[in-house]
Design a protein that fits this description.
single chain, alpha+beta, Pemi-like Protein 1, Chain: D, 2 strands, two-stranded antiparallel ribbon
């Protein structure tokens, strides 16, 4: 699967729709990027856990 994206002057890019949909990504999702020794970049979507969401409501 090959998809192109453009980097803006602010260092931002858009993840192609096909990839967002395949990963089940939603607005507000967080990602981690890992640079491998060969120059490959691995992006992982950080999944929210139900317990983490509940804990946010308990902290006031």
């Amino acid at each position: 699967m090959g998809n192109d994206a453009t980097l803006t002057s602010k260092g931002q890019t858009t993840i192609p729709k096909e990839i967002r949909e395949s990963l089940g990504m939603k607005p507000g999702d967080r990602m981690t990027f890992t640079l491998m020794h060969d120059g490959t970049v691995v992006m992982r979507v950080k999944r929210r856990k139900v317990l983490d969401l509940g804990a946010r409501h308990c902290r006031k």
